[in-house]
Amino acid sequence: xxxxxxxxxxxxxxxxxxxxxxxxxxxxxxxxxxxxxxxxxxxxxxxxxxxxxxxxxxxxxxxxxxxxxxxxxxxxxxxxxxxxxxxxxxxxxxxxxxxxxxxxxxxxxxxxxxxxxxxxxxxxxxxxxxxxxxxxxxxxxxxxxxxxxxxxxxxxxxxxxxxxxxxxxxxxxxxxxxxxxxxxxxxxxxxxxxxxxxxxxxxxxxxxxxxxxxxxxxxxxxxxxxxxxxxxxxxxxxxxxxxxxxxxxxxxxxxxxxxxxxxxxxxxxxxxxxxxxxxxxxxxxxxxxxxxxxxxxxxxxxxxxxxxxxxxxxxxxxxxxxxxxxxxxxxxxxxxxxxxxxxxxxxxxxxxxxxxxxxxxxxxxxxxxxxxxxxxxxxxxxxxxxxxxxxxxxxxxxxxxxxxxxxxxxxxxxxxxxxxxxxxxxxxxxxxxxxxxxxxxxxxxxxxxxxxxxxxxxxxxxxxxxxxxxxxxxxxxxxxxxxxxxxxxxxxxxxxxxxxxxxxxxxxxxxxxxxxxxxxxxxxxxxxxxxxxxxxxxxxxxxxxxxxxxxxxxxxxxxxxxxxxxxxxxxxxxxxxxxxxxxxxxxxxxxxxxxxxxxxxxxxxxxxxxxxxxxxxxxxxxxxxxxxxxxxxxxxxxxxxxxxxxxxxxxxxxxxxxxxxxxxxxxxx
Amino acid sequence: xxxxxxxxxxxxxxxxxxxxxxxxxxxxxxxxxxxxxxxxxxxxxxxxxxxxxxxxxxxxxxxxxxxxxxxxxxxxxxxxxxxxxxxxxxxxxxxxxxxxxxxxxxxxxxxxxxxxxxxxxxxxxxxxxxxxxxxxxxx
Lengths: 669, 139
Fold this sequence. Notes:
The complex is a heterodimer of chains A (669) and B (139).
Chain A: H1 2-29, H2 32-61, H3 68-73, H4 80-85, H5 91-113, H6 120-142, E1 151-153, H7 166-181, H8 183-195, H9 200-231, H10 242-267, H11 271-294, H12 309-329, H13 346-378, E2 381-384, H14 386-406, H15 417-440, H16 446-475, H17 480-490, H18 492-516, E3 519-525, E4 530-533, E5 536-547, E6 551-562, E7 565-570, E8 573-577, E9 587-590, E10 592-595, E11 599-608, E12 614-622, H19 624-642, H20 648-661
Helix pairs in contact in A: 1-2, 1-6, 2-5, 5-6, 5-7, 6-8, 7-9, 8-9, 8-11, 9-10, 9-19, 10-11, 10-13, 11-12, 13-14, 14-16, 15-16, 16-17, 16-18, 17-18, 18-19
Chain B: H1 2-30, E1 31-36, H2 37-42, H3 44-47, E2 51-58, E3 64-65, E4 71-76, E5 81-86, E6 99-106, E7 111-120, H4 129-132, E8 135-138
Parallel strand pairs in B: 1-2, 5-7
Antiparallel strand pairs in B: 2-4, 2-6, 3-4, 4-5, 6-7
C-alpha cells in the first residue's frame, strides 16, 4: 500500500505538469485533442490522489508505525475515528488533503464545462494544474506522507488529546474545502485574463464557486471557534491568533468579492476591482495555508512546523507577480460600462462595503505579520495583540452592519429622499426603540447599545423586504405561506442572501453580548462550600476519581442553584492520559459547559489539592449559543442561495428582467 | 456629474483615512515588545512598568502553586533567570522545561507580573526524537 501511495503521488505530479502543458499547447494551436487529453489528465490526477489518500488511511487505520507520519500522529490506544481523522492532523497529511480537494474541484470544473467556453476553459484548467503542481510537488518531494522511519517503533506518539474532539475532526476538513475552494474562482479570473475573454462567463462561474468556498470558510471558522471554546479552556472562542486570522483574512476578502460581483453582473462596473479582489482572496488563502503550515508566526496552536516556508514564499511571490502582471497587461479590456450616479445608491453602499471589508482584511493582515515586519525594519520584535484587532475591527464591523441594513432597501443608481423615508422609517424606529428598551433595562455599554440597535435595524430592513415581497403575492390571491415560499424559491439569490444576513445578525448579537458582558470568578472551595455568581450558586460536593483504558480522570462534582432552586449538576474534569510511552501532552482540562439560549455557564477545574479542596473557575458568557444558531441560519441561507434552479431558462429570464428593470442598456455578450 | 464624483472621492478618502487612523492608533497604543529574558534584563531600569512579552524555558523544580491556583515560577534563556508570578488559566501543557511565553509587567521588585501565560511544546511537533525512545530494534 505504501509504495502504491507514493507512486500515485509521483504520477499525479507528472500528470499535473502534463495537464498544464497540454491545455496551453492545445488552446494556443487550436488542437482541441490536447485540451481534451489535459481534461482527462485532470481526472486521472483525481483518481491517483484518491488512491494515495486511501493508502495513507490504510496505514493510519492499521497503525503502520514504519511510516513517520503514522508514528507521529497515532498510537495503539487511539480510537478508530481519530486514526481516520489523523489524516489531517499533521503536515504531510494536510497537504495531501489540500491536493485531493483541489483535484476534486478541478474534476468538477472539467466535467461541468468541458463542452463550453472553449477559449476560456483550457486556461482555467492550466491555472488549476499549476496550483496542483505546487501542492502535489511538495508531498511528492519535500513532505511525503509516506516517508519511512529508519526503524519501526513499537508505539506511536499519539494524537494530541485536544485534537481528539468531534469538532477538530471536521473543522480542518471544512476549512480546507473553503481554502481550496477559493482556488477555483481565482482560476476563472486567471483564465479570463489569459484568454482575454473578459466578458460575463468568468464572473458567473466565479461567483458560484466563491459563494461555495465562502460558505465552507464560514463553517470552518465557526467550527474552529466552537472547538477553541470547548477545548482550550480559557472561556473564549476567538483570540486573534495567527492561525485564526489565517482563515479570517480570506473570508473577509471573499465576502467583499461575493458582494461586488453583483455590481459587475448587474451593471458591468467594477471589473478591475473584482479581478484584483479575487487575486487578493486567493493570495490570502495561500498565505493562510502558509502561516498555518510553516509555523513562521509563533502561534499557540500551530500544529505543524517545518521547512516548507521558503517554497511557499516563492509560490506566493510567483502568484502575485504573475497574476498582477497579467492584470496590468489586460487593464484596458477591463473598462467599466457604467459610472456611478449618486453617492446615495445601492452601488455606493456596495463600494463602501467592499472598502471596509478590504480595510479589515488589511488591518488583520498587518497585525498578523507585525512581529516579522517590525523585526525586519527595526530589529525589535513587536507584537500587537487582541486589543489592536478589537480596536480596529469593532468600528469597521459596526459600519458594515449598518450598510448591511442599508444595502437591501436603498435604490439602485440614485435614492430620492422619498425613497429613503419610505424604506427606512420603520427599521430606524425599530433601532431607536431597541436602544430605549435596552437603556430602560439598565444597559450602559455604548458599543453594545450601538451594536444591538444596528442589529435591530438590519432585522427591520430584512423583514420589510420579506414582508413586501410576500404581500404583493398575497394580493394576487396566493395564501401567505405559499406566497412566502414562492417568493424565496423564485428569487433564491436575493432572499437566500437575506437569510445569511439574519444569520450574521444573530452571530453579531452573540459576539457582542459574550464579549461585553462576561462575568468571571475563581474560588478555592472545600467540600460543601459554595460560590456565588450573579443569580447562580455553585456548591462543591467533592472530588471523584475514575480510571478508563485511556485516562485517569478527576471530577469535581458541583451542584448548581439558581435563585435558591437546584437546577443542575455539573462535573468539570481534569484528565491525565495514561500512556506508558512519551506522549508530550498528557494533561487535559475538560470544561463543563451548561449552555442555554440565555447564557453559558463555563466551568473549569483549575486545580485540586490533596485535602480534597478544588479551585474552580466559573464564567458566565451570555448569548454564546446565538453565535452557533446564527451559523446554522447562515448555512441555511447559503444553501438557499446556491440551490440550483429547476429550469435554466427561468433564471436567464430573471436576469434579463432585472436588467431591464434597472433601465440598463448593457448586456451585450 | 463632477460634483457627484467629488463626493465619492471624499467618501472613499474618509473611509481610507479612518481605517488608517484606526490601524495607526491601534498599533501605537497596544504594541508590546517581545523580548528574551536576556533582553529584558539588559533594559532593566527603563523596562520597569511597561508592558512586555517575554519567552523562556521554565526552570525545572521552580513551579510553586498555591492553594488558590496562583503560580510562581522562573523562566530562563540559558543565561539569565527571572521570577514570574501569574494568576489565571494555566495551559494544559505547562510544566518544567516547556517554553513559556508570558505577557505583563516587570515590577520593580524584579518579579514579572504576568496576566497571560502561553506554553509551547518542549520539542517541535514534527520531531521524531521521542520515537527513538520507543524503538525496539532497528532493521
